[in-house]
Amino acid sequence: MSALTKALYPLYWRLLSRYLDKRQPAVPSVTLVQKLIFILPTRYGWWFFGLIVLLYLLGTNYQNNLILLLSYLLLSLFLLSIVLCYQNLSGLTLSSLAPGEGFAEQDIGLSLQLIAAANDNNRHRMLRLQFTGQQHQVVSQRCVPAITLNIAAGKRGKYTLPRIKVSSQYPFGLWQAFSYIALLQHYWVYPSPAQQSPAAGIMPEQDQTSTRQQVSDDTLSAYRQGDSIRHLVWKRLARDPATPVVRQQQTPPPQLQSDWVVVPAVSGDALERALRQASRDLLTLEQSGASYGLKLPALTVAQAKGPAQLQRCLQALALC
Amino acid sequence: MLKQKRLMVVWLGLQLAFLLLLQEAFTLWVSLIFAALLLTRFATLVYANTSLSLKAVNVIGACVAVALLFNLKQAGVLNFMLQILLLAAVLRLLALRQLFEARQLVWVHYFLIGCCFILHQNMLVALVIITALFANMYSHYLLFAPAGSNLKPANIARATLIILPLWLAMFLLFPRLPPFWQIPTAKVASTGLSDTLDPGSIEQLVQDDSLAFRVEFENGVPERQLLYWRARLYEDFDGRRWQENPLRSGSNYRNVHQGATPAEATLDYRIIAEASQQRSLFALANPWQSSANVNIAPSGLVLATKPVSQRTSYQLSSQLQPVAVLSEQEQQLNLRLPAGNEQTLAFGRQLKAQHPQVPALIDAIASHFRQQPYFYSLTPPLLGANSVDQFLFDSRTGFCSHYASATALLLRAAGIPARVVGGYQGGDWHPEQGYLAVRQREAHAWVEYADQGRWQQFDPTAAVAPQRILSSLDDALSAEQRQLLTSPWQRNALLNNLRQQLMHLDYYWSVWVLGFNDDNQRDLWQQVRQNLQRFAYGLAFITVLALLVVALLWWRRRERPTQPQAYRLLSKTLSAMLRHKPAHQPLSAFLRMLAEQQQNEQRQLLLALITSYELALFNDDAAALSALKQQLKQHRNTLRRLHFSAQNT
Fold this sequence. Notes:
The structure holds two protein chains of two kinds.
Chain A: H1 2-23, E1 29-31, E2 38-41, H2 43-61, H3 65-89, E3 93-96, E4 100-103, E5 107-115, E6 125-131, E7 137-142, E8 146-152, E9 157-160, E10 164-168, E11 175-181, E12 186-190, H4 206-212, E13 220-222, H5 234-239, E14 245-247, E15 260-262, H6 269-288, E16 292-295, E17 300-304, H7 307-319
Helix pairs in contact in A: 2-3, 6-7
Chain B: H1 5-21, H2 28-48, H3 54-70, H4 72-75, H5 77-94, H6 99-119, H7 123-144, H8 153-173, E1 196-197, H9 201-206, E2 211-217, E3 228-234, E4 236-237, E5 242-243, E6 266-273, E7 283-284, E8 286-290, E9 294-296, E10 302-304, E11 312-319, E12 323-324, H10 328-333, H11 342-354, H12 358-371, E13 375-376, H13 387-395, E14 397-398, H14 400-413, E15 418-425, E16 428-430, E17 435-439, E18 443-451, E19 454-458, H15 460-464, H16 466-470, H17 473-476, H18 479-485, H19 493-514, H20 518-559, H21 565-573, H22 575-578, H23 587-597, H24 600-618, H25 622-634, H26 636-648
Parallel strand pairs in B: 13-14
Antiparallel strand pairs in B: 1-5, 2-6, 2-17, 3-7, 3-15, 4-5, 6-11, 8-11, 9-10, 12-19, 15-18, 16-17, 18-19
Helix pairs in contact in B: 1-2, 1-5, 1-6, 1-7, 2-5, 3-5, 5-6, 6-7, 11-14, 13-14, 21-25, 23-24, 24-25
């Protein structure tokens, strides 16, 4: 049975996406309206309906009006909760302000903006957000202005955002109102930076050894754009999210011979390796504060420095 | 979420309420087990705020379930089901850890609430159960709501406003079906008259002040002397105790709705009987027609199809004449004389010799009771084996059953078939509410004897204590004995009044809520259909009007935002000229071009117009807008001429 469901699910999802693409093409900002909200009973809802039928049978068999009344009351509640469940989701506006970015095989956090209907954050409760096909989900008890949803990034490239499933079972868990939203936004997956090459004079296990070291303040410094998130001190981040701190590398960043990062005209695995190296080199250069450029077989990015330059170069690598 | 203490407290309270409400279905040791389990949960909640391990709970559950299973035969299927349900709920609460377990718990609670209504339909208890329902709904809500959120009264009010009509409509209009299959009923002790009549059993019954049944009459209440509610026939006598003949409990019913409409006046009435766990119901004189839920036995008794386990209402139509004698066998049955009570038998034979005619004999017995020093008492002395002899010739003090018993035996000795009838006499008439309340204290016994092919009714008590029949039991008793009938709190006038009001409320409750059946439903439908035409035109008119208003609002809303007011003003005044404006050209640009072609004065005017227009449109300037209006009004003629000249160019 489950094998059959597993086999049929992709087909179902393909049909559903085709239907959804027609119904709601991707736009920068989506307000949930009647057209976009679907409502189906939850499993508990089916159980609840069974309870109503059971009570009806009990009331009929005993010819007991009070049990019948109870059964009808629960049925009214069941029906009313369709409307309440719909209202809970209706009017919520979602938008994505900036494209996401991150390195391959890492989680990429995408920041979404939520605006409640009539700016009443209590109107939307127990919201559950999730990218379709992704594990990570966020449950928000009330409407919050911004949330970050993770996407497990695969290969490098530029991707359009998958549909976001917004759902809620509030108030009685009998019905689930849900919507699959397509936001006109994309996210970048950059080649993950290579481990420091032995030629650069740094041990390959450097990352691991440093993570095992005790965090002492003299090896820490403030986060700067371009710092690898691998060096982030997560414990400190959890304590004080406003000022991220990275662990200072023990050795000064290796000096590269040239200010040009060059990707040779190769293909296949060699290209991937070269791109990962280039990604590492770009990060190192940005950290060192020098201005640098990127030469790809088909594209050259002029020399400059700063976060925008790094982003431009990494995007070029992602698309290479 | 499950750490919230208030949820646990709500559930504990609910289960305690279930334990109390379902008390009738539980024997003492079962109740004690449940109480102990709940106490354990309470202790763990207060002292540790943890739950028991699943393993321990499973072991407890298995043991209790096996014990309950052994008790199955004694408890009955329904009681067993209730016990298992409550056990499941209590154990779930004991080991509650997960959210889904809490949801299951809420589900089972809903079902238990439904089951409470099987045992209780009293209005006050129903209120308690409904409170429990709301508590359970609240906990249901909390399970799915954000932590620490509270229900807002406004939201509850809004939900109630939506649910109430929906709910009532369902109750009133949803098809009502007959029972699908036979279901077990709760084993509960029966109340009311039993199938045996001892000297003394009715005295006990009349001390019970609870309601037996209520009656509504179609055409006014009959006189009190006619209100003899027959419930049971006692035909077997063993010298001391009267008993129902096994024949009577057979199932040879008269078919309902059979027989032609009798020529005599009939009495139509509806009886709402309280749960008695007995099949025997109540009827006046000779019922010939009934609603489908009861049967009329040949002897004129009304029997329910199964023991009355909840308040039941049924319709009856009675002829005000005695029940017919069915067969020779029935007469023989009521002539049998047991051994003993020789004095009485001799007295009976002597009376027969003096009064060969039956009516004369009856009169003689009545006058015997009336003239000799006989006393009517709630506390007669205890009697031995020959109870009737002792009563008639020795103690001379008795309650209605003593007189009935003695009279029946006298008649049998005189060769007249006679039997004792058990039932109720009289009742309290409540004119405002329009019903007669008959309580257990109205229990009564009298005699029926066969004469002229019918079972004639004779009540010897009427001879001894006529007030009992004409007014009430209280008037027939001495003040001392009356004290026995009323408990101290009933003597408080205020409380008594409150009790009366509650009883009236309970009456409406049973008529409108408990007694609502498919007949009422059909009537309701019929009324709706009859009045539909009258309402239909009004309804259609209102609907059309509402639709028009909605359409108008919608149209106006669509119209407004597309064009600003300044633009509309200008295009209205200059409509003819603006026909020459190319579609892509802005209005102000077109006017500026027009101004270039005009003479000095008109050009100034146009330029002024443009300025106010642009200010009003792009600066949202209210003053500029009114200035624009003024200018257009003042220079309407100029502008009209302008438009001619524009056409000429």
